[in-house]
Amino acid sequence: MYLSLSDWKSGKAAGAQRAATVAFKASPTVIALGLVSMLTDISSESVAAILPLYITGALGMSMVAYGFFEGMNQSISSVVRIGAGYAADRSNRPKPIAAAGYGLSMLARAGLLFATGFGGILGVIGLDRIGKGIRTAPRDAMIRAASQPEHLARSFGLHRLLDTLGATFGPLLAFLVLVLVPGDYRMVFVVSLAAAVLGVAVLALLVPNSKLVDSGPAAADQPDATMAAGKPKLRELARGPLGRVLLAAGFLGLLTIGDGFVYLALMEHGQLDALWFPLLFVGSNLFFLSLALPLGRLADRTSRAAVFVLGHLALALAYACAAAGGSWLFLLGALALLGTFYAATDGVLAALAGQLAPAGSTSSAIGAAQTVVAVARLLASSGFGVLWILLGSTTAMLIAAALLLLLIPLAWRLLAGRGKPAGNAVAP
Q1: 399 found inside a domain
Q2: How far is Cα 138 from Cα 159, in angstroms, rounded to an integer?
Q3: Which residues pair with 27 in a beta bridge?
């Protein structure tokens, strides 16, 4: 017996056929939310691009401390994700919840101008991560509600493309600021705040305050035609195909370490001066944004579950390239593979969770998936920092790659039955 990940009601793998016959139309709401995310990522990533070297270099902290910091950033946002998703489902109006999250991140950007020392910076970055945790699930629920069900992963891919443009411009802006004004991190924070303010303005002016239920083309594709607004069924999140997705995403996340570790491992091979470190973020993001739409389209036409699982192969190979280092070929390979991983998993996981959400629980389901991944990455980053200290970057990277390669077949079996995915279907 097969359970469909694209069509809950019929159990048939009809999503790929519909995607091939229905023309893709980008929703204005999806585009507007993409612009909000682009501006917000310019803000956050311009700061994030300088933090790894700032913590391990300027502040002289150890790799264990950096691993804890990286993981804590993930965990802080994960604490509020499900709660924010649940609140959006209960109110059936996700925009105010998302706006609160974006507003907190904007306040965090302002706080960086006044924070002093590691503790102060840690506090405002923590506030930013709380804002991210609040806004993400409601925002993705709005994307899901405004999208064509036949092209759900592609719509998420479009949003992620715009989002990643911001994640690309942010580090580039940080690099340019530090070239023009060497060592002036305060100027980076000013640029970051300006972008955050613009993002909140676009959200307020261009994104409609629509209901989740019966508010867009996706409503007809909801798994239960009798769903009621404001009554999310949280107990159902871990059941059926959605539960399998949460389980697979969780244990794959245990081998998904922070990007900063990959970039620091590449730097250890001595090919780049510290000044060029922010450009490593730019490189991987360029590959991400170039592949987000094609891989989203591929997921809609074939199997979202398969694209999500196989995307982790690219991550394992990125670890191997970071460990090998020593040449520009391995450096570019690591950046390309890391970007491919995010293009194959980020939006696709949100599409999977949103498609399989129980009646009235779209935001909660997406928030649950994001929480599972965030908590797993907290453990991964903290553990990897210890492994780096004990064994060195090269050995630690190779161990992470090998363990991830062992987990991928297990996730494939869990989501794709006996290793033979059909369209968007998985077998129990």
Answers
A1: yes
A2: 14
A3: none
Is residue 288 within 8 Å of residue 342, measured between CB atoms? Answer: yes
Quick one: three-class SS letters along 299-333? HHHCCHHHHHHHHHHHHHHHHHHHHHCCCHHHHHH
- For residue 226, being part of any structural domain is answered with no
Cβ atoms of residues 192 and 106 within 8 Å = no
Strand pairing report for 3-4 and 425-426: antiparallel
Counting the structural domains of the chain, the total is 1
Q: Is 217 a domain residue?
A: no
Which residues is 425 bridged to in the sheet? 4, 422
Whole-prediction pTM: 0.71
Which amino acid is present at 344? A
CA 248 to chain centroid, in Å, comes to: 16
Mind listing the pLDDT tens digit for each residue in 119-152? 776 777 788 889 988 998 899 889 988 888 888 8
Amino acid at 285: N
Position 21 in a domain = yes
Least confidently predicted of 22-36, 132-146, 226-240, 408-422: 226-240
What CATH number is associated with residue 84? 1.20.1250.20
Domain interval for residue 56: 3-211+236-426
Q: Is the dihedral of CA 218, 224, 227, 233 positive or negative?
A: negative
